Amino acid sequence: MEDNSNMDRGGATAGESRSVYEAIFREMSDAAFLIDVEQSDEDYTFTYRRNNASHQEQSGLSEDELRGQTPQELLGDEQGTVVAGNYQECVEKGETIEYEEKLELPGGTSDWQTKLTPITDSGQVTQIVGVARDMTEKKEQERQLKRIHRRFETVMETMSAAVFLKDADDQYLMMNQACRELFNVEDQDIVGLTDEDLFPPDTAEQVRTDDRRVFENGEVIEIEETVPTTSGNTVRLTRKSPVYDEDSEVMALCGVSTDITERKQAERQLKENKERLTEQNTALESLAQIITDTERTVDQQITDLLDLGTTYLDLDVGILSEIDGSEYTVRNVLDPSKGITPGDSFDLTDTYCSLVYDADGPVSFHSATDGGVKDHPAYEKQGIESYIGVPVFVEDQRYGTLNFSRSESREEAITDAEESFVRIMAQWMGTELNRQQREEELERTSKFLQETQAVAKVGGWEVRLRSERMRWSEELYRIHGLPLDANPTPEEAIEFYHPDGRDTIREAFDRLTTEGEPYDLELRIVTADDEVRWVRTRGEPRYEDDEIVAVHGTFQDITERKEREQELQRQNSRLNEFASVVSHDLRNPLNVAQGRATILQQRANEELQEHFTPLVRSLDRMESIIEDTLTLARQGETVGGTDPISVVDLIGKCWAGVETGEATLEIEDEFTLRGDHDRLQHVFENLFRNAVEHGGEDVTVRVGRCGEDCLYVEDDGPGIPPSDRDAVLEPGHTSVSGGTGFGLTIVKRIAEAHGWEVAITDGRDGGARFEFDTAGLPDK
């Protein structure tokens, strides 16, 4: 195509053709341009002649800007040289060529698909017609698709789930890295592999059956399957989906398989925990019912507990023994074979209970091999395989053991929760035996006193109403501390009663003399020696002709019985403390269960959440049972009168009263405080004893002030972890073998009785520091 000024004007037909070409050049949507070619020797000069409107719009070059420019002049040396090379290739080949190029033009950087066609004259290329299409958007789409593809491949290869593609002939077309690792084919070409190449025949057949549902029905299926691998079987959750071709026919199957082995194990563990908690919850409910049933005797309750223990522990024989020296006597027993009966005696060394006494604590094993006791006489003579035994204490003295056993091994080891359950039963039995002994002793004493009164007419008295003359027996004078020649009147006799009960006896005596109403009262009197004693006073009328002429009765000194009752009340208080210990011992396994449940709940998916409602309900029920068994009213006591106390004198006395070994006491401040001297002595003695027990005999203990209203006691021992600081003040908490766990509880309660607050923190040398926030410590 030539410029109009050089066109041949020789004929109408040629002119018309040129007009057509000119119109096509000008109006075509593709970018078109014309290049003049000059050749000298082997060198070429390419000069742009013109471009159409589409080229001008897309390139940003007007025809005037283009005309007369060489590629280097128009596009720069580097880019222009490359473009000129393409032009030269077209000239030398003498034919149309196509290529893609990226050009930086005034209209911006664009991707072009360019087609060059040579125009010859007398066998020589004189011009080149170029037609270009802007491929920028298409190229960008291609680049975006490549980026997406690369990302998809990256995601596929980094997915933990195994992803695969199979055709209708059961041949694998693609596997991601996780899938290749699962099937151990990382170094193989997986295309063409079948399930028979990867699985045992039974597994491969099941896989094909599942696949046919996808290919034949177009189903999307989700299955749990066990996949054998070189490292063992894994449980997989596999989702298989159909892949369709353009004709909507299923051409392939895409599978995504996730390893749910840990989840299934967690489900099994959760189920086992739930079952175990249910069993423990049931056992605790039964225990609570047994020990709170007042209709049963202690022996009946113990027998029921032995039955409960054998059932809960899956053991055959339960025994409560009494041990005296080397003699082991069966007190209560549950033995289905009737081979052991109450009263049977054995040598202690022939029983596993000798191990309990040696350890001074629980001993348990689910098999003789596990317990290392195959050379023990109990195994050699009786063949006992499974055993758990704990010591039983009565009044802090070893009474015997509570033990359960059977001749066969248990499948599972005895757990901490089971051991704790047996310890709880043993503690209850020890406390009940102690109570029973006290009640029996009290009953014997009361009966003896009643018999003595009946035979000797102890404390008899009589008052004749007309003369108001009163007669006492000799025992009555002795009880009041009066000589036998004393002659008290009824009113004087009433004055011997303690002021708290004086109105009560006066009103009762008046009703007796006027209405004939008998009385039977237990009151206090104050003897002539100012001794307070408890008495039981009884009064009855004596009639003559339906008229009350005299009153008489008995007067019994019951001080000893009252003291025994008070001692029994103290025993009951210790039983209440025992309930708190029960609470503490049960809360340990309960907290473990709750912590495990929380961890599992956090890790579990939505499918597992439905299991947590009964699990949490079981835990809550267990906690309710614990609370129901508590009878200790947690109320601080108060103290009576308080006096100024020199802390230096008090501490010195307390330090001397505790076995401190090589320990050192440092008193850093001298001051006084107000309080109950005797009760505060218990505070410091327990703190000093606690420091020596936990810090060693060379521990250093310091006492001083840490504020106007605060004092402290600290040591340089191992200290108390923050997580344990609340627990150590509770009854029963101890980390020392043989400790009662009440020392720091005493400290807390006495402090609270003074209105003080107790806090545990770190000492300056890392040991334990007890700070007491008091009210109004005097200045130094």
From TrEMBL:
CDD domains in alphabetical order: HATPase, HisKA, PAS
Domain PAS: 148-218
GO molecular function: phosphorelay sensor kinase activity
SMART domains linked: GAF, HATPase_c, HisKA, PAC, PAS
SUPFAM superfamilies: ATPase domain of HSP90 chaperone/DNA topoisomerase II/histidine kinase, GAF domain-like, Homodimeric domain of signal transducing histidine kinase, PYP-like sensor domain (PAS domain)
Coiled coil stretches, renumbered: 260-287
Reactions it catalyzes: ATP + protein L-histidine = ADP + protein N-phospho-L-histidine
Source superkingdom: Archaea
Residue ranges annotated for the Histidine kinase domain, each copy included: 581-778
Transmembrane regions: none
Keywords: Coiled coil, Kinase, Phosphoprotein, Plasmid, Transferase
Keyword Transmembrane: no
Top EC class for this record: transferase
Domain PAC: 97-147, 221-272, 519-570
E.C. no: 2.7.13.3
Protein name, per record: histidine kinase
